[in-house]
Specification:
Length: about 180
């Protein structure tokens, strides 16, 4: 067991959903078998941290979450909302990764997409960027473990009669992604 104020030589701690890097170890206090950080307790056993890998999922909007009706919001793709809500419940962090943008002239197409997620009680971790990557890269590409996009090579698609073109098949994508999330724990 570590002595109060001393930390073992490790590279990072993963505390629930936040990564605490080595440079922040001075902020961490060890209390018996519990680790206290910003009011969050995490079990600490045999000098090993019980860790969980963050799961970042970048999700396109048109053709993935809703039918292609840009600049309008199309009909919901069946099961998309249910699966995204489930993934958030499992601890995944969703990043809206779309070509939609706000043009400043009152045509707020990106804001419309973000509002769609809010109206459907789906928490977004980021919009066209992953906030957690700011400390380790200046790349404009949003980092994700999984990218879901109807235009992605190999993404399962379904043809829905009333839709303008094929969209993501959430009956296949949903369970496959859930399996990856659960296996990453």
């Amino acid at each position: 067991m570590p002595i109060l104020g001393q930390a073992p030589r490790i590279h990072c701690f993963l505390i629930f959903r936040e990564i605490i890097h080595e440079e922040h170890l001075s902020e961490i206090l060890f209390l018996g078998t519990l680790l206290l950080f910003s009011g969050t307790l995490v079990f600490y056993e045999n000098l090993k941290v019980i860790a969980r890998i963050e799961m970042y999922i970048c999700i396109d909007f048109d053709g993935t979450v809703v039918d292609h009706r840009y600049p309008y919001i199309g009909a919901p793709v069946p099961l998309a909302i249910d699966w995204m809500q489930r993934w958030v419940e499992l601890g995944a962090r969703l990043i809206l990764f779309t070509m939609r943008s706000d043009d400043g002239d009152g045509q707020d197409f990106l804001t419309d997409a973000v509002d769609y997620f809010k109206k459907n009680n789906i928490q977004l971790f980021g919009v066209n960027r992953n906030p957690s990557q700011d400390s380790w890269t200046s790349s404009p590409k949003a980092y994700g473990n999984i990218y879901i996009d109807d235009a992605a090579f190999g993404c399962p698609l379904v043809h829905i009669q009333s839709f303008s073109r094929p969209c993501v098949d959430w009956e296949k994508v949903g369970p496959a992604v859930e399996k990856v999330i659960l296996e990453s724990r």
